[in-house]
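Retry 2 of 3 after timeout on previous attempt. Resubmitting C-alpha cells to design endpoint.
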C-alpha cells in the first residue's frame, strides 16, 4: 500500500512561501522551517515501504512482498492469500521471530520488523466458519462454482466488453483499413460480451456439501465441522471430513455414514482442501494450471469482484440459449445460504445503525485515521445498500410479513435483516395537503438525497440513519437502519421528536441541545434561522425547516430525520398556470441545493464588487497623501547612493556597513508595505450573509407586524431565487450549448446530471425544450422530449404494475411496449396472458389489458402536460426514435430485455433478411424452422411466439414487436445515501492546484496519492474510481506522459463499463479518450477501433448525427490520414461536414473550418478539382463572416491559390498524357507525378510556377509533407479564434492531432 502521509507531509516544504525572502529579524522562524523540513524528511524515511520475506509452511517456499509501515497486518495477510503460490492458505496467522502477530496491529507496531525480515505463515485450526469460508474460496478458485441467480444485480451484471474490443483492435491492426458504412443498421451485439469459443477447463467433476451434514453432536465434540463430497476428473468419488485440523478422506459412502479417516491407499489428508485435491486427482495439478491460464486471458479488472458498489445491470441481455447466461447444474448453489450464514444464519445479521454510528465516531485526527474511517464507511454503505435492496425486493414481492398486517397495504411496515422498510406512499395521510401518494413518493427521493448531503458534510455530533430508496415493479420502498428508540412509545406529555414538527405541524419541539449541530447543518446548506408557529400560534425559532426533525435516540445520539425540505419551495413554478386540465400532481416542488449554492456565490461576488467600489473611493484620497509624503523607496535609494560615495574622512568598510543597514531598512519597509497592502486588499466576508427560509409558502402564519415584514422579506428572497433559475441559469445553459461551450447530453442520465449540476429541476424539461427552438439546439430538444416521454411512460407503467403479481409483469411489459413502440407493426396489439395465470390470480387487477396504442398516447400526453407543462407534437409517436426510447424506459424501469431484432414498423420487417433455417437435426419440426427467428435461437420444436420478429412468417399468428418472453428480468433501481471520500477529493484538488502553480513534481505526487486513496477507500471497481482514472489520464496526457495516460484511460473504460453501464455516456467518453491517447502515442490503428466502438455505442444511445460526433469524426479522419488511408479519411471528413451543416448550417464558421479540412483531405486523395471547390467555398464563408483581413480568410485564400495552381498543372499534364481521355476526380501530385504514380517516385517534370514565400508553395512539397502540414507540422490552423471551444465544435479539428 502506498504511504498515505508522505505526499501530504511534503506539501509544506514545497510551499512557494517557504522560498520567499525572510526578514533578518526573525532567524527563529527560519530555524523552525528547517526543523519542520527535517522532521518531515525523517517521517517520510520512517514511513517508506520496505520488502519482507514470507515463509510458507511444509515445503518452506518463500516469496517477497512490499509492505508499508502504516499497513495493518491483516492487509499483508490478504496479499499472501492472493499470491499465486499461496492460494491454498486461508486459515493461518503470521509469526515474527517466533512470536504471533495480531492481525489488527500496524506493521510499524511489530517489534523488529524491518526490510529483509521473515514472516512465517503458521496454519491455524479451523472453526466451522473458517471451514465454510475455505470451502467457498476453493470452489471459486478452481472454477467449480456454477452461475448465480441474483435478485438484485440481475443477468450479466458488471459485464465488460473491453476484451472483445481489444481482440478486434489486434485483428484490425494486421489488416487494411476497411470502408466504414455510415448507413449500416445499429449493432446491438456491441452491447454484449462475445461468447467464449472454448469452455473453461474442468478441474473436478463435482465438489459439494455432503448430505450427511451437519455433524452430530458427539462428532462435533471431536472436531468435525463439515462433510463434503467430491468427484475427480478421473471419475472417483470421495467423501471428505472438514476437521479442525484440516481435511481428510473418510469412510462414508452415499448410503453409509462413517466419517473416520480412510486408512487404505485412497486415504489422504491435508490442511488445505486444494492440497487434498492435488493428492486425490493425478490430473488436478495440470487442469488447475490450465484453468488459471484460461482465466488470465481476460483483463483482471474485468473479472475483479465488485464489492463496494452495485454493479451495472445491462438493459439488453443475450438469448436464453447463449453460453453467457447458461444455467449450470450446481447442487451447492442452494446451499450457499448455509455456507455464507452458518447453520443458525447469524453471520449475516448485523446491527446496521450501531455500525454506521460507531464508524462515524472513529478518530479523524491523522490522514491514516481518515483513510481507515472513510474506507470503513464506504464498505458499510455498500453492504447496507445491498442488504436493503435485497430486502426491498422481497417486500415488493410479498415475501416478508408486515409488522402491522391489519393496516392498509401502503401503511404497512416491515423489518427484514435488521432493516426497517416502508412504502413510499401516503399510507397515514401525512402528505394529504401536499399531493398524497405523489408527494410522499417525491419526499422519499428528496429525503435520501438530503441524507446523502448531510453525510457528505460529516458534522460532528449529528447522526443519520442508513437510508436507501428502491423502485421495483411500480413500488417505491424505503429502507432505513433502525434508530434506537424509534419504536418506543413516548411517556404522557413527552414527544418522540425533540426538534421540529411533531404530529404534522400542530406541535413544534425545540430542544435546545439540538440547536448547535442543527446550526452547523443550516449554515452549510444556506438555511436561515427563522420563526415557525404551532397550532396555538406559539412562536419557535428553528435553525432548519420545521419538517426536518431531531430525535434523541436511546443510545444518546442526536439523529436528524425527514430531510426532504432542506430548500424552499419553487413558488414561481407553483403559481405559474399549467395546461388546462393538467394540474401539477404535488406541492413538493423544492429548489435544488445546487441552485441555492450558485445563487449564494453570485451574491458573494456582488458583495465583493460593492466592497471594492467603496475602496475605490478611499484609494483616491489615499493617493493624495502618498504624493505629499513621497515614496519611501526613492528616499532610501537617494540616501544609499549618497552614503555609498567614499569620503576621505570615511573608511570604505563603514560605507559598506552603512549601505547594508540602509538596504535592510528599505527591505523591511517594503515588506511592511506589501503586507499592509495585502491586508488592505483582503475583503472581510464575515459581514456577508446569504440564507433562505425553507418554510415560506408552506402555511406558516406570522402574528405580529414585525414577523409579517420578516416573512415578506424571506418570501421575496425565495422569489428572487426562483427568478434567478428561470432568468439566469436556464438561459445561460442554453447559451453555453448554443456556443458549444459544453457538451450536449447523449441520453436521459447525462441530461439529468447536466441539469442537476446547474441546479435545474427536471420539471423544467418542458421549458427547456420549448426554448430550444434553433437548429443548433435540435439535439438538446430531442433528448429533452425523449426524456419527458420516458418518464411519463415510467409513471404510467408503475400504475399498472403496482398491484400486479410478479408472474404477470412480463405480459404487462410486452403489451405496454407494443402499444408504445410496436403500433407501426401491429396497430391493435393484444395482451398475451397465460390463461392458467388468469385463473390462478383471479383477484389481480389486469387493467393493462384494456390499454390501446391510442389510450396510451393520451396518457403519455397527459403525464407530459402535467409533469413538465409541455405539449407533445401531434404525431410524436412516429417522430420518436424507437430503439433509443426503448433503452431509456428500460433503464428507468430496471428491465432486462432479451436481445432480438426488434421490428417497430412493417417496412423494417419487410426489409429484414429471411430467417436462417434451423439445423438439420430438428426432428422434422418444419413449422418451427419457418417461424423461429435465428436471432432468438428458440428451443427446437417450440411453438412460435407472437412477438418473435420472424414469427410474422407464419400465416397463423399476428406479428408483435415484443412478447412476454423478451422481458426476462427486472432489477431494482437504487438510490443510496453513501457520501464521497472527502480525503481523496482533497488530494486530487491539491494535485491539480500544484500543477497549475507549476509545481509539477509535487502535483504528480499528490495526484498519485489521490488515486491510491480512491482505490483504498472505494476498492478498484467503483464509479468514483472510474472518474478518477478518467481525470488522471487527462492530466498525464497534458503532462506528456502518454503511456501513463493510456493505461489510466484503459482502466477508466473497464471500470465505467462495469459500474456505470456498457452503454453509458461516461463509457463512451472514456473510449474516445483512450482512442485519442493511443493515436498520440503512435498506435493509430488500435485507436481507430476504440473510436469506432465508441461511435457505435453512441448511435445506440442517441441515434445518428449527435453534434459532438462532429469532433469525434474529425479526429477519426485525422487518425486515418496518419496511417495514409487518405480516401477513407476523406469520407469521414465528408460525413463530419454533413452533420455540421445539419447542426450549424452551411454558412457557419464551423462548416467553413470543416470545408477547409476537407479540401486538404481531397488534395491528399488526389482529387484536385474537388479540393479547389471546397477551399473556395471555405474562403468565401470566412471572408463573408470574418472579413478579408482575418487570418483564417487569408490562410484559406493562400491555400486556394496553391490548390488552383496545382490543379491547373495536373490538368495540363493529364492532357498531354491522354488528350482524349476524360477523368473525373484527377488526383493531383505536388511534384508533377503522373496520376497513379507513387508520391515518392521521381517526378517526370517539375510543376511550373514560382514558390510563394512562407507558407511554402505546395508545388515544392511531397504528399507526406502536405500531410504533415495539414496535421499541424507547420504550426498553421484553419480554426477561428474564440473565447472557448466546446467538444462539439469542429473548430477543434486538430483534436486528435493536438
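Retry 2 succeeded. Sequence:
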Amino acid at each position: 500500500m502506498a504511504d498515505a502521509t508522505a505526499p501530504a507531509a511534503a506539501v509544506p516544504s514545497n510551499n512557494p512561501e517557504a522560498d520567499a525572502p525572510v526578514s533578518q529579524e526573525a532567524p527563529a522562524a527560519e530555524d523552525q522551517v528547517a526543523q519542520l523540513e527535517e522532521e518531515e524528511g525523517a517521517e517520510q524515511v520512517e514511513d517508506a515501504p520496505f520488502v519482507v520475506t514470507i515463509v510458507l509452511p511444509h515445503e518452506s517456499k518463500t516469496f517477497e512482498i512490499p509492505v508499508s509501515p502504516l499497513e495493518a497486518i491483516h492487509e499483508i495477510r490478504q496479499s499472501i492469500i492472493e499470491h499465486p503460490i499461496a492460494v491454498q492458505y486461508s486459515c493461518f496467522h503470521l509469526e515474527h521471530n517466533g512470536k504471533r502477530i495480531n492481525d489488527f496491529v500496524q506493521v510499524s507496531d511489530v517489534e523488529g520488523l524491518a526490510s529483509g525480515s521473515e514472516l512465517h505463515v503458521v496454519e491455524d485450526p479451523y472453526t466451522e466458519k473458517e471451514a465454510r469460508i475455505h470451502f467457498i474460496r476453493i470452489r471459486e478458485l478452481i472454477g467449480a462454482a456454477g452461475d448465480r441467480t441474483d435478485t438484485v444485480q440481475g443477468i450479466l451484471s458488471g459485464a465488460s466488453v473491453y476484451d472483445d474490443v481489444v481482440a478486434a483492435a489486434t485483428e484490425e491492426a494486421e489488416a487494411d483499413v476497411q470502408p466504414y458504412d455510415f448507413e449500416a443498421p445499429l449493432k446491438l451485439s456491441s452491447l454484449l460480451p462475445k461468447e467464449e469459443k472454448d469452455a473453461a477447463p474442468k478441474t473436478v467433476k463435482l465438489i459439494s456439501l455432503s448430505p450427511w451434514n451437519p455433524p452430530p453432536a458427539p462428532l462435533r465434540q471431536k472436531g468435525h465441522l463439515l462433510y463434503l463430497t467430491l468427484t475427480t476428473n478421473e471419475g472417483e468419488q470421495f467423501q471428505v471430513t472438514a476437521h479442525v485440523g484440516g481435511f481428510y478422506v473418510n469412510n462414508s459412502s452415499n448410503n453409509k455414514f462413517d466419517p473416520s479417516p480412510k486408512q487404505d491407499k485412497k486415504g489422504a489428508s491435508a490442511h488445505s482442501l486444494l492440497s487434498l485435491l492435488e493428492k486425490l486427482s493425478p490430473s488436478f495439478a495440470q487442469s488447475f494450471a490450465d484453468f488459471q491460464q484460461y482465466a488470465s486471458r481476460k483483463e483482471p479488472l474485468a473479472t475483479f469482484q465488485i464489492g463496494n458498489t452495485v454493479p451495472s445491470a445491462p438493459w439488453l441481455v443475450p438469448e436464453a440459449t447463449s453460453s453467457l447466461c447458461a444455467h449450470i447444474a450446481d447442487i451447492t448453489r442452494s446451499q450457499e445460504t448455509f455456507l455464507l450464514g452458518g447453520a443458525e444464519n447469524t453471520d449475516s445479521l448485523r446491527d446496521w445503525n450501531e455500525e454506521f454510528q460507531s464508524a462515524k465516531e472513529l478518530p479523524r485526527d491523522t490522514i491514516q485515521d481518515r483513510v481507515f474511517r472513510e474506507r470503513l464507511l464506504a464498505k458499510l454503505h455498500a453492504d447496507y445498500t445491498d442488504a436493503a435492496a435485497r430486502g426491498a425486493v422481497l417486500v415488493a414481492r410479498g415475501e416478508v410479513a408486515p409488522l402491522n398486517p391489519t393496516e392498509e397495504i401502503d401503511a404497512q411496515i416491515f423489518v427484514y435483516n435488521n432493516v426497517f422498510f416502508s412504502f413510499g406512499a401516503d399510507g397515514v395521510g401525512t402528505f394529504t395537503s401536499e399531493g398524497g401518494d405523489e408527494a410522499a413518493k417525491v419526499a422519499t427521493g428528496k429525503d435520501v438525497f438530503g441524507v446523502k448531503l448531510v453525510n457528505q458534510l460529516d458534522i460532528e455530533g449529528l447522526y443519520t440513519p442508513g437510508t436507501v430508496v428502491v423502485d421495483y415493479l411500480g413500488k417505491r420502498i424505503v429502507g432505513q437502519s433502525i434508530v434506537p428508540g424509534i419504536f418506543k412509545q413516548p411517556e404522557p406529555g413527552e414527544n418522540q421528536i425533540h426538534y421540529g414538527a411533531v404530529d404534522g405541524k400542530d406541535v413544534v419541539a425545540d430542544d435546545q441541545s439540538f440547536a448547535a449541530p442543527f446550526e452547523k447543518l443550516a449554515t452549510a446548506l444556506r438555511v436561515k434561522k427563522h420563526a415557525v408557529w404551532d397550532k396555538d400560534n406559539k412562536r419557535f425559532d428553528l435553525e432548519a425547516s420545521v419538517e426536518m426533525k431531531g430525535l434523541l435516540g436511546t443510545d444518546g445520539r442526536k439523529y436528524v430525520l425527514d430531510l426532504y425540505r432542506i430548500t424552499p419551495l419553487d413558488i414561481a413554478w407553483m403559481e405559474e398556470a399549467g395546461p388546462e386540465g393538467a394540474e401539477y400532481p404535488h406541492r413538493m416542488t423544492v429548489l435544488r441545493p445546487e441552485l441555492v449554492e450558485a445563487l449564494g456565490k453570485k451574491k458573494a461576488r456582488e458583495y465583493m464588487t460593492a466592497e471594492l467600489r467603496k475602496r475605490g473611493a478611499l484609494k483616491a484620497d489615499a493617493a493624495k497623501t502618498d504624493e505629499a509624503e513621497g515614496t519611501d523607496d526613492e528616499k532610501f535609494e537617494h540616501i544609499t547612493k549618497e552614503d555609498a560615495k567614499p569620503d576621505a574622512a570615511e573608511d570604505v568598510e563603514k560605507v559598506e556597513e552603512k549601505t547594508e543597514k540602509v538596504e535592510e531598512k528599505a527591505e523591511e519597509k517594503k515588506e511592511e508595505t506589501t503586507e499592509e497592502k495585502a491586508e488592505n486588499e483582503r475583503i472581510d466576508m464575515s459581514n456577508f450573509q446569504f440564507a433562505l427560509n425553507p418554510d415560506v409558502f408552506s402555511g406558516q402564519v406570522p402574528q405580529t407586524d414585525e414577523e409579517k415584514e420578516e416573512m415578506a422579506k424571506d418570501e421575496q428572497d425565495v422569489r428572487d431565487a426562483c427568478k434567478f433559475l428561470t432568468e439566469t441559469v436556464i438561459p445561460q445553459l442554453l447559451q453555453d450549448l448554443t456556443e458549444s461551450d459544453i457538451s450536449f447530453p447523449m441520453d436521459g442520465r447525462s441530461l439529468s446530471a447536466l441539469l442537476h449540476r446547474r441546479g435545474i429541476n427536471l420539471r423544467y424539461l418542458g421549458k427547456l425544450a420549448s426554448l430550444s427552438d434553433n437548429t443548433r439546439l435540435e439535439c438538446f430538444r430531442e433528448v429533452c422530449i425523449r426524456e419527458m416521454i420516458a418518464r411519463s411512460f415510467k409513471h404510467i407503467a408503475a400504475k399498472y404494475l403496482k398491484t400486479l403479481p410478479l408472474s404477470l409483469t412480463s405480459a404487462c411489459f410486452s403489451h405496454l411496449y407494443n402499444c408504445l413502440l410496436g403500433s407501426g407493426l401491429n396497430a391493435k396489439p393484444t395482451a398475451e396472458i397465460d390463461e392458467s395465470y388468469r385463473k390462478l390470480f383471479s383477484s389481480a387487477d389486469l387493467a393493462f389489458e384494456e390499454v390501446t396504442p391510442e389510450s396510451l398516447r393520451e396518457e403519455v400526453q397527459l403525464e407530459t402536460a402535467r409533469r413538465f407543462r409541455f405539449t407533445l407534437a401531434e404525431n410524436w409517436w412516429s417522430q420518436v426514435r424507437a430503439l433509443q426510447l426503448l433503452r431509456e424506459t428500460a433503464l428507468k424501469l430496471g428491465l432486462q430485455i432479451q436481445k432480438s431484432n426488434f421490428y417497430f414498423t412493417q417496412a423494417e420487417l419487410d426489409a429484414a433478411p429471411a430467417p436462417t433455417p434451423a439445423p438439420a437435426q430438428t426432428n422434422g419440426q418444419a413449422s418451427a424452422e419457418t417461424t423461429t427467428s435465428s436471432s432468438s435461437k428458440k428451443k427446437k420444436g417450440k411453438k412460435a411466439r407472437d412477438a418473435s420478429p420472424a414469427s410474422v412468417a407464419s400465416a397463423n399468428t399476428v406479428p408483435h414487436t415484443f412478447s412476454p418472453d423478451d422481458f426476462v428480468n427486472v432489477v431494482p433501481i437504487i438510490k443510496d445515501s453513501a457520501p464521497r471520500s472527502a480525503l481523496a477529493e482533497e488530494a486530487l484538488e491539491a494535485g491539480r492546484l500544484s500543477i497549475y502553480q507549476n509545481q509539477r513534481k509535487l502535483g504528480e505526487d499528490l495526484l498519485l496519492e489521490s488515486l491510491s486513496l480512491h482505490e483504498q477507500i472505494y476498492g478498484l471497481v467503483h464509479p468514483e474510481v472510474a472518474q478518477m482514472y478518467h481525470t488522471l489520464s487527462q492530466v498525464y496526457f497534458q503532462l506528456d506522459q502518454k503511456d501513463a495516460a493510456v493505461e489510466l484511460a484503459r482502466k477508466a473504460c473497464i471500470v465505467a463499463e462495469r459500474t456505470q453501464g456498457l452503454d453509458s455516456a461516461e463509457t463512451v467518453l472514456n473510449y474516445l479518450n483512450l482512442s485519442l491517447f493511443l493515436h498520440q502515442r503512435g498506435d493509430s490503428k488500435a485507436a481507430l477501433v476504440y473510436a469506432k466502438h465508441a461511435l457505435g455505442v453512441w448511435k445506440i444511445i442517441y441515434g445518428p448525427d449527435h453534434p459532438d460526433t462532429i469532433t469525434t469524426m474529425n479526429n477519426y479522419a485525422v487518425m486515418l490520414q496518419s496511417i495514409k488511408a487518405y480516401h477513407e479519411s476523406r469520407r469521414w471528413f465528408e460525413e463530419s461536414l454533413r452533420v455540421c451543416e445539419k447542426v450549424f448550417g452551411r454558412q457557419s464558421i464551423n462548416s467553413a473550418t470543416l470545408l477547409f479540412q476537407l479540401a486538404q483531405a481531397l488534395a491528399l486523395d488526389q482529387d484536385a478539382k474537388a479540393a479547389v471547390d471546397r477551399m473556395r467555398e471555405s474562403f468565401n464563408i470566412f471572408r463573408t463572416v470574418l472579413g478579408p483581413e482575418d487570418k483564417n480568410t487569408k490562410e484559406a485564400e493562400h491555400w486556394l491559390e496553391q490548390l488552383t495552381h496545382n490543379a491547373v498543372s495536373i490538368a495540363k499534364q493529364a492532357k498531354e498524357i491522354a488528350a482524349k481521355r476524360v477523368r473525373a476526380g484527377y488526383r493531383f501530385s505536388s511534384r508533377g507525378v503522373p496520376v497513379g504514380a507513387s508520391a515518392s517516385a521521381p517526378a517526370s517534370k517539375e510543376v511550373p510556377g514560382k514558390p510563394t514565400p512562407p507558407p511554402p508553395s505546395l508545388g515544392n512539397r511531397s504528399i507526406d509533407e502536405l500531410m504533415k502540414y495539414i496535421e499541424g507540422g507547420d504550426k498553421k490552423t484553419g480554426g477561428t479564434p474564440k473565447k472557448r471551444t466546446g467538444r462539439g465544435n469542429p473548430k477543434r479539428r486538430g483534436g486528435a492531432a493536438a
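Attempt log closed. The chain has a mean pLDDT of 82.
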